[in-house]
Write a structure and sequence with these properties.
It contains 8 helices and 16 strands. It is α/β, with parallel strands linked by helices. It is elongated, with a radius of gyration of 24 Å. It binds nickel (II) ion.
């Protein structure tokens, strides 16, 4: 099958892709609650002739399409959950579920993966190997649905993993490609400084957690600035501070909370050790106690260089080199990383930005809109991967 044949079939399927996306957009469901979404996806997959469908977790599903000949097993993952946002768009297919909205484009991800399944099942006898379609629940809320699916064994015997995200950061008709670290690891830290409260007029009999905490906050900035190589990116931000209830009472304790974003496992492991050392050292100097905790969120998505190069070659062959953007790392987190532990993976960004259509609003915004033309490009990406990796 040459790219032109696939692209023609994709064009014929395009109105259906839009219809799938609009149905999902109209009926958004929050993370870990995607019951109707999962039921709808199963119904559509069965109508396409897909028979091997499993539900290894409460929501989300995995469909398998086996080719007529032996070959490798590739998995493509689409996330399917919506956000707790009240939609502010006046669209005929706007959210009918108050307080929930597909404001990140996951409705489009599911529709594109249905398209890949539709054409893969149609051409299954000619395919070599197996396509595993992972419709993943709960990307938006840590610990995330990917970790649950991984624990349920969906990645067993998968040779290669692929994923994508629609993005209003890039123009429609472009693919954002990057080898190596693509998204940041997103972690949280909590520091509680326990002092000794008392009257504001007599600090000499107290241990002031606020003065101690202020020093800790300032000194935490030296972790990135003075301890990491300039070439190792990290962002450490203190975002929540709380202490005290009255103007004339030195409080008992102060709580400091913040986030760490990193791209390499080495830096991700190193930073909390340095943070804890600084916080404990300053607390000890002032006679305060320090409780330090660090909670790992999503790991960084790491694109395998060889796999990414092959995907890019496929995109150049299908669409031309002028549609490729070589992008910088992205700071948002993405739990696709939880699925990529045992096999090489590649995650691509798909442009949907078109100011003329008003689809240039940021994701997670109540007025977010998608340029549905981006679905054609994104489904094309998935088909180029299926054709390239499972083709004869
Ligand atoms: Ni998203």
């Amino acid at each position: 099958m040459n790219p032109e044949t696939w692209k023609q079939e994709l064009d014929e399927l395009f109105p259906q892709i839009v219809a799938w996306r609009r149905h999902l957009h109209r009926h958004p469901e929050l993370s870990f609650q995607e019951h109707q979404t999962t039921a709808y996806l199963e119904e559509q997959l069965r109508a396409l002739g897909v028979t091997e469908i499993a539900r290894p977790t409460r929501t989300g599903l995995v469909a398998r399409i086996t080719g007529g000949r032996p070959g490798r097993t590739i998995a493509i993952r689409a996330d399917i959950d919506a956000l707790p946002i009240q939609e502010e768009n006046d669209l005929p297919f706007a959210s009918e579920n108050p307080g929930a909205m597909h404001a990140c484009g996951h409705d489009g991800h599911a529709a594109m993966l249905l398209a890949a399944a539709a054409l893969a099942v149609r051409h299954a006898p000619a395919l070599c190997g197996e396509l595993v379609c992972i419709f993943q629940h709960a990307e938006e809320i840590p610990p995330g649905g990917a970790a649950e699916l991984y624990a349920a064994g969906v990645m067993n015997e998968v040779d290669e993993l692929y994923g994508c995200h629609l993005s209003s950061n890039f123009p429609t008709g472009t693919f954002g490609v990057r080898a190596g670290a693509l998204t940041a690891a997103t972690d949280r830290f909590d520091i509680t400084i326990q002092g000794k409260g008392g009257h504001s007029s007599m600090p000499e009999v107290c241990v002031d957690p606020i003065v101690t905490g202020a020093e800790v906050i300032a000194a935490l900035q030296t972790v990135v600035a003075r301890n990491l190589r300039a070439l190792d990116p990290a962002v450490l931000s203190v975002c929540q501070v709380s202490a005290g209830d009255a103007y004339n009472i030195i409080p008992q304790e102060m709580a400091i909370t913040g986030s760490l974003r990193t791209f390499s496992e080495e830096v991700r492991s190193q930073v909390p050790v340095l943070m804890e050392r600084i916080a404990r050292g300053i607390c000890a100097a002032h006679g305060a106690e320090c409780v330090f905790s660090f909670e790992r969120g999503y790991a960084s998505v790491q694109n395998d260089p060889a796999l990414t190069r092959r995907v890019e070659e496929g995109l150049v062959q299908w669409f031309g080199a002028d549609h490729i953007l070589h992008i910088e790392p992205l700071m948002p987190g993405e739990d696709f990383s939880a699925l990529q532990k045992d096999c090489p993976a590649c995650f691509i960004e798909i442009g949907t930005r078109n100011p003329a259509l008003g689809t240039d609003k940021p994701h997670h915004n109540p007025a977010y809109r998608m340029d549905e033309e981006g679905l054609r490009w994104g489904a094309g990406l998935l088909l180029s991967i299926v054709a390239e990796r499972l083709g004869s």
